[in-house]
Specification:
Elements: H1 24-56, H2 62-85, H3 93-118, H4 130-145, E1 157-162, E2 167-172, E3 176-180, E4 184-187, E5 210-217, H5 224-230, E6 240-249, E7 252-261, E8 266-275, E9 278-287, H6 291-304, E10 306-307
Antiparallel strand pairs: 1-2, 2-10, 3-4, 4-5, 5-9, 6-7, 7-8, 8-9
Amino acid sequence: MGTLPVPVLTPRPSPTGTPAQRSPQQIRDEVENYLSKIQVVLGDAIYWYQRLESLGNPARDPEKQRALIDEHTPRIARLHGAALLIQPPEEALKAHEGVLKAFLERQLWLSAASSYLNQGITLDGIASGQDLVSAQDGLVELAGTFGMEYPVPFPSQRILVSQRHRLVVTYPGDWILGDDDFQVVLIAPPSLQKPDLSGLGPSAQEYGTAFKVWALKNPSGWSLGEADSQSQGFLIPFGRVLSREEVTVNQLPAVQRILMDDVTGWKTLFVVTVKETYTYLIEGGCPEGLFDRCLSTFQGILGQIRLTGNP
């Protein structure tokens, strides 16, 4: 497995015009909302990197090291991407820049480590992830400045309105928004992830356990049957079909399948539905041993999703 591209830090554009006046309570609320999101992302990153450190030090087995680096590189990369999606208020810019810098440093090291292993060079050990912990200290300081204890309480549920994918999705507060570009991706917490290389799943995106939704423009008048037939190519990576049934999503008829990849031990919930001129593809993937727990959460998200269709 090659190295992943490392995101670069893009300077936040300076605001133009006269900024809106905010009350002290509004400022505090914005900081608390920011902390409630970034603390989950950074907390998961610290969890995964500390796991990498505990298993990789002082082992000098190159095959073991390669497996560990290949697993944790995409995990840290996807969490870095999630951190980049979070917009901090002005008062949190310094702390947020510290988080992004720490993610970048860890990715640069992981990329270099992968390069060394590809050249047959055994690593002396795993570089410390203290910069991630230091970034967390910056969040603790930010919280204290506004009279809050860190970690701040986070909501049991969050809501995402995706204009690109024409939907509103409600999801558990300890899940993380990993993407809202090519598709909406919600990343599960470590408790629903399998901690090894196979736990990344069969997808080339390597999010691990995740819930994904994306909308595709289709010819006007497509039926559910036509959309389902056209979506068969998306099922290939997920193995054999264990079940197929007709269900309802957001009061729309849908086709739901559960698939199993016997090689990777990965199970996938895959749902197809149509609203107006859009086909919605919904995917929830999880290791087989965790699938019953994952499926409960997937179904909970499905039960609250709102597909908005044409503007």
